[in-house]
Amino acid sequence: MKARLPHNGCDTLMLGFDYELRRRGFAGNSCQIVLGLKTAVAASLLEQRIADLVRLHPILASKPLRGFRPRWEPTGKKVQVRIHANAPNLMQSLFNERLDIHQGELIRFDLVGQSLVFTWAHALMDAKSAEYFLAMVGDVNVPVPETGKDWYAERGTRAGSLRARGKQAWLELHRLEKFKTALPVSLGTLRPPKSPTLIYKVVALSREDTVCARANASRLCGFLGDTSFHLAVTLVELHELQSRTERPSASYVVPIPVSLRPKGSRAPLFSNQVTMMLHQFLPAEVSTVERAVAAVKTQQNDFFRDNQIDAGITLAHFFRRLPMWFYMRMIKHELRGEICSLFFGDTAAVDSALRHFMGAAIETFAHVPAVTLPPGIGVVFHRVREQLQFTLVYAEGVLTSAEADTFSNRLRDRLLNP
């Protein structure tokens, strides 16, 4: 592995979100995977396995360096494996603990009885990479993808001439300029948080309900699949939620993560390979699921027709040498201080390699993302052994506990009865 790996455009974007969260007192742009295991695992065996992988891939213990050549600098920092006695609200507490990423702490493991909590800096890798990495940690028979010149490759930021990439970035800026005609106002702006704490709630559908939800997705979205359906349903419920507040939004801007890896590929592993399709929806377009699906289809068709799939990452790559505060100010400039209305994600089926962890069967699984403020609210979908789940994350004070329960229950019911 190279000693110093350059930041790609998505690294820059994720470090920007980390900066924004820490500036407001939150833990940072860290994500988690929570496993419920049939039996507890030995901390000593876990520590040894991680140490072996860090020696093979020093980026797992590297710090991000800014400047003229933004890069990852290996530090050799030891990865923490901590053991906890179970206690009320412990999982929420672990979710809100910082990683010291600027000293090389990019991953951490916590053992809580028969549960394992894996925390990673989103700047290091995306959710699908995290799933496969966790499978590698838990099973020495899961192959480590071969290293090579494309191991840490990036997509879109080096393709074509400088002029062509500049034109692509300019088109993205011009597209964002149009969002000003109906500026969004997120819940995180309407309701400043009571404390710099993120709260999460995981909702699991039964297998029978999952079959029903997927049938609805197929009927309404066709070849666009489950993700478009999940997005449409979430948009409708977000609109209803904000319509019940003191100030409904003039529009809803939602970033839709899109994988840039070739289908079936897991490499490059320790390199974000996602871009964000930023879409804007007017209230009339999200008043029903059918209208929301039609709006999603139209905007995605326009996005692909204009060849904008890499535009956001190209833009971020151009600006990766800027001071982080200035970069984030630029991101929020077009929306007058907003980043988006809601963070949305759909990681689809959990990686098939993640069945057992160090000999223990995995009985439960959950993705927990971080969300910036604004918007202070996010929803991520994932499917565990053909069972659909979603995680609602919000900043304390942006929603009350009752509102969070109502939103998640309505979202679940809408998946079944759109």
Number of strand segments: 15
Sketch the major β-sheet: 6 strands, mixed
**Content-based structural category:** alpha+beta
Helix content: 25-40%
* Strand proportion: 15-25%
Shape from CA axes? globular
Query: What string, H for helix and E for strand, traces the elements in order?
Result: EHEHEEEHEEHHHEHHEEHHHEEEEEH
- The poorly predicted ranges are 148-158
Give, in spatial order, the strands making up the sheet with the most strands: 5-6-7-2-13-12
Radius of gyration over all CA atoms, rounded: 20 Å
Mean pLDDT rating = 88
Question: How are the secondary structure elements laid out?
Answer:
Layout: E1 5-6, H1 9-23, E2 30-37, H2 43-56, E3 62-65, E4 71-74, E5 80-84, H3 90-95, E6 107-112, E7 115-121, H4 127-138, H5 162-177, H6 187-190, E8 198-204, H7 207-221, H8 225-243, E9 252-259, E10 274-281, H9 289-305, H10 311-318, H11 324-333, E11 343-349, E12 356-357, E13 360-368, E14 377-384, E15 387-395, H12 401-416
Parallel strand pairs: 5-6, 11-14
Antiparallel strand pairs: 1-4, 2-7, 2-13, 3-4, 6-7, 8-15, 9-10, 12-13, 14-15
Helix pairs in contact: 1-10, 1-11, 5-10, 7-8, 8-9, 8-12
Give short descriptive properties of this protein.
alpha+beta, 6-stranded mixed β-sheet, 4-stranded mixed β-sheet, 12 helices, 22% strand
